[in-house]
Design brief:
46% of the residues lie in helices and 18% in strands. The longest helix is centred in the C-terminal third of the chain and has 22 residues.
């Protein structure tokens, strides 16, 4: 799978460079993301917050939307942010048709995705403050 990884101070940006995201490629992507997500927080592979840029993805197979929703859900269950951005119209249609679009965190641009990550981080800090 062709991807580009850009490490920022508090999160990573994974850009999918494949025009057609097949179920097989989605499994490979999910395995990679899970490995990073489950890595020891002190390792270089560790990843807590993630932006997945899908602007190069022009179409996805019908099995893929559920997989994309599941990995995002797993990140949020661990109090980690996960945002998709740059979704193309055909991909958006596939997500809507699969019934997962509304439950996914999707922004038009990478900049907006970064804003969401920052807002969610502030929200977690504030909510954790109330727990003490």
């Amino acid at each position: 799978m062709k991807i580009k990884i850009d490490t920022k101070e508090r999160f990573k940006v994974v850009s999918i460079l494949e025009p057609h995201l097949t179920a097989m490629l989605a499994v490979e992507l999910l395995g990679m993301l899970k490995k990073w997500h489950e890595a020891d927080s002190s390792s270089a592979e560790a990843m807590t917050h993630l932006v997945v840029v899908m602007s190069a993805v022009e179409e996805i197979e019908k099995e893929v939307p559920q997989s994309l929703a599941v990995i995002q859900k797993e990140f949020y269950a661990q109090q980690h942010s996960f945002v998709y951005c740059g979704i193309q119209p055909a991909v958006e249609d596939a997500l809507i048709e699969a019934g997962v679009y509304e439950m996914m965190n999707i922004t038009p641009t990478e900049s907006e995705a970064w804003d969401i990550l920052q807002m969610e981080e502030i929200e977690r800090e504030l909510l954790n403050g109330y727990d003490n």
